Amino acid sequence: MIRVLLLATSVLLSANLAAQMPSDNELKQLFSMNVALAESGDNDAQMAVCSAYSYGLGTAPSAGQALAFCSLAAKAGIPRAQLLVADAYLQGSGTEPDVAAASYWYEQATKTGMAQGHIGLASIYFDLDNVLGTRNLELAAFHAKQAAAAGSHMGEMYLGIMHFNGFEPGVSEGTEIDYAASMLWFEKSAQKGNMISAAYLVNIYASETAHQSPYKAYLWASVLKKHLPDAYPEDVHFESAALLTSTQREAAAEQLLLIERGWHSLSGAAASI
């Protein structure tokens, strides 16, 4: 019965179902049972306790305790736990930031086929703000390609940014500046719902270059207006709209609906895995 309760609660929380959540007392009881199971070596329970401490479910939130229990599951080879531990070390959640430890756990996760591990390593080696001192664009490109090959929109986004920016003198080469290649990767990523890629596409399609496209600029600006208003480029949206016919604007609205349906299909497929 305890095992059933544990698994049922895990499914309920991870799937974010619309069913009624357990009461506070029930969460506290489940937490106590899961702690006992976790301390006896049950990896599922260790993950459940990690989540409980992370989100304050049945207990007070504690990043340090969350890391402690997730670390147990990570050492037992649970890929999801390895990713959570890596994230904690990279962000300094419940511990001091430790890029080397984060890299180690992301690497462990990649060995089980977790594309998210490659994304974590790509972010470390890309070091976008150049604050970690870990920039190596050759390795960043390698891990971004591995993630993109697995269908990750984040991997595709990193490849797009690398092609868009190229590489800086004095660092390992990732890719040379190639706007056409960056557009291909950004389109793949944005079609899966990545708003950063959508913002880059607006930038490219609104530019006065051979890649300029008022229609595409208007389309992706419309996406940002609806789904990321804080980054909505109002000036580009209106300028692009003025260059389009009413038929083209209607076509863009229809294409936006198709893009959003694609996002829903991808979300449904991911939820069913």
Order of helices and strands: HHHHHHHHHHHHHH
Estimated radius of gyration: 22 Å
In whole angstroms, the N-to-C terminal distance is 25 Å
Low-pLDDT sequence parts? 1-18, 269-273
Give me the number of helical elements: 14
Mind sketching the topology for me?
Layout: H1 2-15, H2 24-39, H3 43-55, H4 63-75, H5 79-91, H6 99-110, H7 115-126, H8 137-149, H9 153-165, H10 179-190, H11 195-205, H12 214-227, H13 234-242, H14 246-272
Helix pairs in contact: 2-3, 3-4, 4-5, 5-6, 6-7, 7-8, 8-9, 9-10, 10-11, 11-12, 12-13, 12-14
What does this structure look like?
- This protein is an all-alpha fold.
- Helices cover 70% and strands 0% of the residues.
- The chain contains 14 helices and no strands.
- The protein has helices spanning 2-15, 24-39, 43-55, 63-75, 79-91, 99-110, 115-126, 137-149, 153-165, 179-190, 195-205, 214-227, 234-242, 246-272.
- The longest helix is centred in the C-terminal third of the chain and has 27 residues, at 246-272.
- It is globular, with a radius of gyration of 22 Å.
- Residues 1-18 and 269-273 have low confidence and may be disordered.
